[in-house]
Write a structure and sequence with these properties.
The chain has about 160 residues and is α/β, with parallel strands linked by helices. It has four helices and ten strands, in the order E-E-H-E-H-E-E-H-E-H-E-E-E-E. Strand 3, helix 2 (about 45-50) and strand 4 form a beta-alpha-beta unit. The relative contact order is 0.27. Pathway: Cofactor biosynthesis; tetrahydrofolate biosynthesis; 5,6,7,8-tetrahydrofolate from 7,8-dihydrofolate: step 1/1. It holds the Pfam family DHFR_1.
């Protein structure tokens, strides 16, 4: 089951200048819990936004570059190649950025979305989840608190058959 996992604000904002525009520690914990042990598929800029490869995950980086070869990841040049690399994983994840989410959405069976309640200046956006194609299976609200400046909702969508 191919899953897109993201945190996006009310207008599908993902980030600005290759960084998130919020800090939600509980969302980071959830991301780690869900993706550990699996393939994570991402674009080059997303990979380069990490200080180092994330532990206990197979990094698959999609780039147009033919000479990109950072340590700790598998480099491919298309979404189809990335999916072929992850074919034996029962739950690979697409983790961004915006263009990679758009490329991956037609292949996805599931979307794990953290909807951040707010509006932000952004230059990167998550694709629209159209209700005719997706059914929300779970929704769990978290209010803002001392560690979280914004309220947010974990939403799980499954593709309609």
């Amino acid at each position: 089951m191919l899953t897109l996992i993201a945190a996006a604000a009310e207008n599908n904002e993902l980030g600005k200048d290759n960084d998130l525009v919020w800090h939600l520690p509980d969302d980071f914990k959830r991301f780690k819990q869900l993706t550990t042990g699996h393939h994570i598929i991402m674009g080059r800029k997303t990979f380069e936004s990490f200080p180092k490869p994330l532990p206990n995950r197979t990094h698959v980086v999609i780039t147009r570059s033919t000479d990109y070869s950072p340590k700790g990841c598998i480099v491919v040049n298309s979404m189809e190649d990335a999916l072929a690399i992850a074919k034996n994983d029962d739950k690979p994840y697409i983790i961004g950025g915006g263009e990679i989410y758009k490329l991956g959405l037609p292949y996805a069976d599931c979307v794990e979305l953290t909807r951040v309640h707010g509006s932000f200046e952004a230059d990167t956006f998550f694709p629209e989840i159209k209700p005719q194609n997706w059914k929300i299976m779970n929704s769990e609200f978290h209010d803002k608190d001392a560690k979280h400046a914004y309220s947010f909702t974990y939403e799980t969508y499954l593709r309609k058959k």
